[in-house]
Automatic annotation (TrEMBL), chain A:
This is Integral membrane transport protein. InterPro entries: MetI-like (IPR000515), MetI-like_sf (IPR035906). Belongs to the binding-protein-dependent transport system permease family. It comes from Streptomyces glaucescens. Residues 87-300 form the ABC transmembrane type-1 domain. Residues 1-20 are annotated as: Disordered. Coiled coil: none annotated. It comes from the Bacteria.
From TrEMBL, chain B:
CDD domains: TM_PBP2. Belongs to the binding-protein-dependent transport system permease family. Residues 1-27 are annotated as: Disordered. This is ABC transporter. It comes from Streptomyces glaucescens.
Length: 311, 298
């Protein structure tokens, strides 16, 4: 998102003093509600997660609660194979999912950026899944993948696909099945972002390239892609973080199963806290997730040049 | 923009494929993509997009047990069942309440903060912007435990207020960035002119800036509504009382039941989708603008 850079470097606001000059306190008053809410419900919880990560804390087993030092972390890294599995799956999920979303999103954006009959309708239709929520996406694909009445059954009727297996409960098929379900909703997101940026490419550049005899492929590599670079890098990173964090889809689609095959780290955290009430351990896992995300944030801020020249 | 060689913009004979003259002023390179290269991939993608929608309609409208691929004879039994027996009527009300309250709260708080960011230079501004940006990386899901504690302390567990507050807070950073960008697009001189005419800052803002901000506010408000309508984990965690639940939690319950009632699930899904579809139909023209104006989170 090239715009993120604009956020980083706001144009210097006018400093002229005038009769109706505002009290110095006004900007602070204006950001106070937002700042207070974010302090109370984001900053403070983040700090308490760090605190809890050093505690044994389980409301259902109060007799064991107390200071635990780094036991939770030691347990995660040395004794908990599930933790490592979730890390590996998280990486696999994010890389495959975001990679495919970018690829298809770019292609889709290039297509609907053309002028053709029925473009408005075409855009509206292919973008429509973007509005659909994680849980609703799950509901839809649960229906599609159902072994008795889903699309699989009809595929089997015409000779493709295996009859009677539910793609979501088979360890061999659950990964691609979940990927496809999330692609359905994620590709339009990328396509919309890229389309927004495509529209700002100057047409003159193409005309000039054409005069030079550059074909469409060349034009794409030398004009379109460089122009989109910033937007692509930043939206991919944001999307990667978002796909990593988001638990709605997998929580409801597979619940992390079968056999933990689709459990991301955040999903494991949610399960550990919501179902097992092991708040201390969940907090330690959250801390690990934070470290990973912090690393991503630093990369993001670097790329968006937030640390760069200030006004 | 930097990579192309500077070329004289002189209409030169085109090398590829001679074609009938097109209206002047239209760029040609990508415009002359063969039609099939547009329609073929688009149709394939359209099929992929629409089959799931068709499927959910099919299950919602055909009688239980039917395997027909057309929803005929049509029945609305599933809708009636989820609405009354499965409490979707109640969930719907709760979701509307949460969505509207989040919309109003987010818009007001973000409007104040966004104005400060757009129009003032103040000490903690850079730090505050950095905090906004960083908070995009803090997932609500990971903060469930402390948030639960806080709401327990505030005696807000099982009250919709907890979900409204949580949704608002996590919607705020993005909304504020968007709104401040929208405000920056309104020339400051307009406001100054109003002061000269005797308006105070607030009146000038209300009379001059606010009307121009309407598209931006609609986009931001709609995003807030849609997000809180769709989001699931906060409601699942903070609302234990079934009568207080929201639509996504209701859908999850339908999915995780021992024997999934597919007709009810499909009908519930459609009920969940209707408000979102309406909102998007309404804001469509502002969608791309809204996106162009700032960083975006899906």
């Amino acid at each position: 998102m090239a715009q993120a850079a604009a956020v980083a470097k706001p144009p210097a606001p006018p400093r002229r003093r005038r009769a109706s000059a505002t009290p110095r306190r006004l900007p602070y008053l204006l950001i106070a509600p937002a700042a207070l809410l974010m302090l109370g419900f984001i900053a403070y919880p983040v700090i308490s997660v760090f605190y809890y990560s050093l505690q044994d804390y389980n409301p259902t087993k109060p007799w064991r609660n107390g200071f635990a030092g780094f036991d939770n972390f030691v347990h995660a890294f040395t004794e908990d194979p599930v933790f490592w599995d979730t890390l590996v799956f998280s990486a696999k999920w994010v890389v495959v999912e975001v990679g495919l979303q970018l690829l298809f999103g770019l292609a889709l954006a290039l297509i609907v950026n053309q002028t053709f009959a029925g473009r408005a309708l075409g855009r509206a239709l292919v973008f429509s899944p973007w509005a659909v929520s994680g849980v609703l996406t799950s509901a839809i694909w649960v229906l599609l993948y159902n072994s008795q009445t889903g699309i699989t059954r009809y595929l089997a009727d015409v000779g493709i696909g295996s009859y009677g297996t539910s793609w979501l409960s088979d360890t061999g098929t659950v990964f691609p099945a979940a990927i496809v379900a999330d692609l359905w909703r994620g590709v339009p997101f990328f396509a919309i972002l890229i389309l927004a940026d495509l529209q700002s490419v100057s047409k003159d550049l193409y005309e000039a390239a054409e005069v030079d005899g550059a074909g469409r492929i060349k034009q794409f590599w030398h004009i379109t892609l460089p122009h989109l670079k910033d937007a692509i890098v930043l939206s991919t990173l944001l999307r990667a973080v978002w796909e990593f964090n988001n638990v709605d889809l997998l929580y409801t689609l597979t619940g992390g199963g079968p056999a933990g095959e689709t459990t991301t780290l955040p999903l494991y955290i949610a399960n550990t806290s919501v179902d097992a009430h092991d708040f201390g351990y969940a907090s330690a896992l959250t801390t690990v997730a934070f470290v990973i995300l912090l690393f991503c944030s630093i990369v993001y801020l670097r790329l968006s040049k937030f640390g760069g020249e200030s006004k | 923009m930097s990579t192309t060689k500077e070329a004289p913009v002189v209409p030169a004979p085109r090398r590829t494929r001679p074609e009938p003259q097109r209206p002047a002023g239209r760029h040609r390179g990508w415009d002359e993509v063969p039609r099939w290269q547009i329609y073929l991939p688009l149709s394939v993608y359209l099929v992929f997009t629409l089959i799931p929608f068709y499927w959910i309609l099919l299950f919602a409208l055909r009688p239980a047990g039917s395997t027909s691929l057309v929803p005929w004879p049509m029945t609305f039994d599933h809708f009636e069942k989820v609405w009354t027996e499965r409490e979707f009527g109640t969930y719907f009300q709760n979701s509307v309440l949460v969505g509207l309250a989040t919309l109003v709260l987010t818009t007001i708080v973000a409007l104040a903060g966004g104005y400060a960011l757009a129009r003032f230079d103040f000490k903690v501004k850079r730090g505050f912007m950095l905090a906004l940006l960083c908070s995009q990386f803090v997932p609500g899901a990971l903060l469930l435990v402390p948030l639960f504690e806080i709401f327990a302390e505030l005696r807000m567990i099982n009250s919709l207020g907890s979900v409204i507050l949580a949704e608002t807070v996590f919607q705020l950073p993005l909304s504020m960035i968007l709104i401040s960008n929208f405000i920056k697009n309104v020339p400051y001189s307009l406001e100054e002119a109003a002061w000269v005419d005797g308006c105070n800052r607030f009146t000038a803002f209300r009379v001059i800036v606010l009307p121009l901000l309407r598209p931006g506010l609609i986009a931001v408000g709609s995003f807030a509504f849609v997000h809180s309508w769709n989001h699931f984990l906060f409601a699942l965690m903070f609302l234990n009382n079934q009568a207080k639940q929201t639509i996504p939690v209701g859908l999850n319950t339908l999915m995780s039941a021992d024997s999934v009632d597919l007709g009810a699930l499909a009908a519930g899904g459609i009920i969940a989708a209707v408000p979102v579809v309406l909102v998007f139909a309404f804001i469509q023209k502002w969608l791309i603008t809204g996106f162009s104006a700032g960083a975006v989170k899906g």
